[in-house]
Automatic annotation (TrEMBL):
Residues 172-183 have a biased composition (Basic residues). Residues 167-222 are annotated as: Disordered. This is ATP-dependent DNA helicase CHL1. Residues 189-203 have a biased composition (Acidic residues). GO terms for molecular function: 5'-3' DNA helicase activity; ATP binding; DNA binding; hydrolase activity, acting on acid anhydrides, in phosphorus-containing anhydrides. InterPro entries: ATP-dep_Helicase_C (IPR006555), DinG/Rad3-like (IPR045028), Helicase-like_DEXD_c2 (IPR006554), P-loop_NTPase (IPR027417), RAD3-like_helicase_DEAD (IPR010614), Rad3/Chl1-like (IPR013020). GO terms for biological process: establishment of sister chromatid cohesion; nucleobase-containing compound metabolic process. Residues 57-455 form the Helicase-like DEXD box c2 type domain. Pfam families: DEAD_2, Helicase_C_2.
Amino acid sequence: MNLHFAHLHCFGSTRRASGHKGSVRLRLWDMPETTLVLRTPGYTSSGEQEDATTRSRQFHFPYPTAYEIQLELMTALFEAIEQGKFGVFESPTGTGKTLSLLCSTLTWLQMNRQRHDIGEMPSTAQPEDQAEPDWVMAHEEAKQRHALQQQEEQLRNNLRIAREHLAEQRRRRESHRQPAKRTRREDDPPSDDDFLPADYDDEGTTKAEWPPTTATAPSDAFLSPEVRSMMQAYEASLQPNSLVEEPETRPKIFFASRTHSQLAQLVQELKKTPFGRAEEPVRSIGLGSRQHMCIHDGVRKWGRMFGTEAMNERCLEMMEGKKAKRCEFLPPRDAGGQAKLDAYRDHALAEVQDMEELVQLGKQLHTCPYFGARHSVRQAELVTLPYNLLLQQNAREALQLSLDDSIVLIDEAHNLIDTILSTYTAELTQMQIEAALSQVDKYLQRFATRLKGTNEEHMRTVQVLLRALQTFCAHVGTSTQALSSLTTAQLLARLGGTADQINVSGYADKTSLEEAGHLSKPQSRTQPMHAVEAFLLALTNKAVHGRVLLTKEATGVRFKFLLLNPSEAFQPIVEAARAVVLAGGTMEPISDFQTQLLAPGSTEKFVAFSCGHIVPSDHIVGAIVDTGPKGLPLEFTHESWQQPVLLDELAHALCNYSNILPHGMVVFFPSYASLDTTWKRWKQTGALERLARRKQVYSEPKEASQVDIILQKYAASIATPSSTSPKGAILFAVVGAKLSEGINFQDDLARCVVMVGLPFPHAKSPELAERMSYMRRASPSAGGQDAGRDLYLNLCMRAVNQSLGRAIRHKDDYAAFLLLDRRYARPEILSRLPGWIRSQVHEHERFGASIAAMAKFFRSKS
């Protein structure tokens, strides 16, 4: 791959580094001799900006010329990474955000590699009182550098051989393609045989349909002599000496997103770039859950029958080989097993592959892709993973993820704060306490004499805690005194202990606690024990500020642990990484990310970038509508949903808009309750029937399984309008439900997005009240701002912005945005709208003016 090498700045004379396909020029700057600062691509040595085509090429953009907003994003991101910032980057959907993120971060990674190749290497010098002479240290560093270079060359050679092997396999499959036999579908009913362990021969070796290593594959006859020779060299490199831990590739890029489908799209974008298509592509690996990566039929079916937790435990059992024979896909803990894992790693890193391809690779190599991918992380340059594996500290520790000096990039990060809070939320019910106590009692009765001393001590501690919780529940249930919340210290004191005394998180071995659950049925055994463990861990975690809410229910008392300060959970990531980047299509309001995710005193690390939309400004029109057709003020407060006259006014307004708005309209309500109330009223008055004479009417179902069906009907009504509903369709949706996040309404599917009211969270919610109270304590008022109220407004407007962002999906798209509530004109509300919408929004005090504006806009598009 012919790559551009941008300038590096250092103190010293100008010189040229060699050893690459290109060259790296060093320029004089007043900086310490050991500090090399990367110059941002797209600028000349004199600081002048290059033309768009040159800038695109220097960022390795896969198309001749990137859009200007893409170039601005790549430039700002590159500089944030180089300067070690905490950045929030907003780029509306349809602007090629993912491609820009990849090109910028990977360009920085490549240039940083060159920086180290030139000679800058972290010093291994000891403290002065133990330091060796300079010449000894120089010799040692040169020796280490040489060893690292040799190991890197060996890895690159392994990957080259693996690429040849993969290419040969593809050629062979193409030339010997045969109809595939029908295999059992995932949803076919299981047979009894599905729950039997794998067959083992007399020597304890698993019988398999494919060989355990690539060396014995029956495909050798199809390999060319050159490839066969390379494979022999490859096998030789995977001898017992591979058990020596290889150095970790640093820095890495950790690219996280919400769902596996979003990560799959990311990989497809990566394959378009020079980094993914190169002769030596970027070494990338994807991490996922067992649910997505397990290839053991019995474990997968166990998971479908009893749930994800049961699947995880089944896998752990088969790893240890206790209750079932050892999993046939998990390599043994010896040199041969290490060689199999190394073979998987080399094939996985040889090419850019998505999750499905990594799973298929595991089947071909007869090696577990779940553990094979984890084994590959150490030598990877780009790691893709879902949120939960990055945000949970115990998950990072289990995966041995080191974020040191790396770039952490979180896409679709608009809900990151809520995700962190929910990740560290733990609930425990009185019924779970009693079930878990029963399990622990029975377990100790049966196995106390066989438990090791430490494990018995831990089990006895849990038993005492559960009995204390049971007693506390009984007291709360019969008490007439109001008790709504406690600090963790207060609750622990009432249970008779402290965080130091009740240190459940210090378990060296949780086997006993887990085994206690195995005395009950599979579908019910794990939930109580896992709930107890999660709750006790939350209580004893000194690193976080939390609050425990208590509620009385028909079935007993419910405990709910709330994390109040998300920065405490996120700070370890910020401190370890070189740079942290939060990206999304709609990140406004941005202030929350600074105030809630950064530790006090770290504001200098914070940078924010927001670019405009890719569409021309005349493709967007927005209107804040203060009054309805009859002049009634439009203000949908919590109480106003019970006012029939206001609901009737809303119906008249939508009927009028339906006459002039073409194709699809998506109308968002603050909640299911408000939509249900309105729907009921409109059925009584005939308003729904009047709307249906203009546009076919649909409503978002509460059952997630029905959403796709409604969407298909909605799209069909727009594509082929009926004689009874000639103007397309209207879809009523709910803010925060499925249609407001992750569903794209492009082109005719959303020529207009309507927001009815403002989706403020319930002000009397105990969880929200605790968060607002904490924000007021942690952020004293400055400049007259109330931190609790800021949180309240931001929660509302983030939900609004996500809903508005469902429309405008590409550069030729266009849409109108109607904000039906006069409160949108308030500065504190208006300022929190995305910039690309805010600049096109106009307030209309009279309803007729908004009708005229909409009519004019759509006439210009016809």
